[in-house]
Amino acid sequence: MTHGSPMEASLQAALDALSDPIRRCIVRELAGAPDWALPCGTFKELPVAKSTLSHHFTVLRNVGLLEQRDEGARRFNRLRREEFDARFPGLLALVLSEP
Amino acid sequence: MTHGSPMEASLQAALDALSDPIRRCIVRELAGAPDWALPCGTFKELPVAKSTLSHHFTVLRNVGLLEQRDEGARRFNRLRREEFDARFPGLLALVLSEP
DNA sequence: ACGAGTGTTCGACAGACGTCGAACAGGGCG
DNA sequence: CGCCCTGTTCGACGTCTGTCGAACACTCGT
């Protein structure tokens, strides 16, 4: 489980990551909860298989949008809001403003 | 040749449009010149066929990033900066800040 | 009127990527 | 230990889309 830094991420990678609607759903849900509140299993409502979900988490983590931490069997998530916004000003706000 | 309005464009469409590197090149070059200064043929340096280029212009026009106007045989372009920035604050600036 | 230049449209192709199921690894609890 | 739960990995499949060339439409000089 390798974490990418938002500072080293390219705009290409950021746009690729956020151009998927499911990944934007993940980001929005994460933004609506406190840090480290939601394990990956929280997102079962999304209409994709768990293997697909795992793939999406990897993409978000690589681009530096997500930080993950294992606690027992569960993997908790945190949105790296400040760091990501410092690298790509306004981009995260755009996603969070989506209905 | 139908123009889409930035106000009616979805974030999905905007991200799809800007996630292509060639389209971002077009946008950046357009931003570096006055309005209506550049016809489509100006972008021959880009490593794609002219039919591909035409396709990219259509995508940018549909999402409301581009306004086009025929003048004789040539088709001139204008970036809809204000309108697009009003709909997606910061997104265009992000593209223009790219190297 | 002819040819050169500009741009679009069409069909076909190839690569990228989102998707899935099955198999696997590890933790916690009876 | 045995079972359930959580999450990852792997290979395969389908679709979307960027790409091209050829053909077409149109304007402008000569």
- End-to-end separation of chain A in angstroms reads 31 Å
Cα radius of gyration of chain A in angstroms: 12 Å
Largest sheet of chain A: 3 strands, antiparallel
Q: Please, what is the average pLDDT of chain A?
A: 98
The general outline of chain A is globular
Give an overview of the whole structure.
2 copies of one chain form a homodimer. The mean pLDDT of chain A is 98. By secondary structure, the first copy, chain A, is an alpha+beta fold. In chain A, strands 1-3-2 form a 3-stranded antiparallel sheet. In chain A, a hairpin with a 2-residue loop joins β2 and β3. Helix content of chain A is 45%, strand content 14%. Chains A and B meet through α1 and α5 of A and α1 and α5 of B. Chain A binds a DNA duplex (30 and 30 nucleotides) through α3.
